[in-house]
Amino acid sequence: MSDEQVQTGPATQTRRALLAGAGALGAAVVLSACGDDSDDSAGGDPAPTGGAAATGGAGDSGALASTADVPVGGGLILAAKGVVITQPEAGTFKGFDPICTHQGCPVSNVDGGTINCTCHMSKFSITDGSVTSGPATTPLAAKELKVDGDQITLA
């Protein structure tokens, strides 16, 4: 049997399989747990927010989303693409980093005029990314967006 094969049953896995499993578990813990109080980032799955679909309607054009995908007074989290897009007022689109500055959790939703991290309940303004409610003390980093017609891309 090679190191790549694993028999079923207790005590029959190879060391490589056990180490791979431990590494995968460690990676899952790191990606889902909170880290230190820095700007280090971890990815996350897109979360639908403000009634908008997280995948957007931009198709294969290279755009992040369509303007119609981002609700006025709300936003769209595209964690896999590394951006939160908000529309604080009609026709004004803002981009922010999707990672909470408190302990590195991905933000969860956009609701009530704020970008929210449900790990420790930090809230950030959809207008400028500033902290509206801690424990975070540092605003979300801004991301430059470009709106061309009805398509939103990173600038």
Automatic annotation (TrEMBL):
Region (Disordered): 37-65
Comp. bias regions, Low complexity: 43-52
Annotated signal peptide: none
Claim: Oxidoreductase is one of the keywords in the record: no
Annotated organism of origin: Micromonospora harpali
Every Rieske domain range: 62-154
Pfam families for this protein: Rieske (PF00355)
Annotated protein name in UniProt: Rieske (2Fe-2S) protein
Domain of life: Bacteria
Keywords from the UniProt entry: 2Fe-2S, Iron, Iron-sulfur, Metal-binding
InterPro entries named among the record's database cross-references: Rieske_2Fe-2S, Rieske_2Fe-2S_sf, TAT_signal
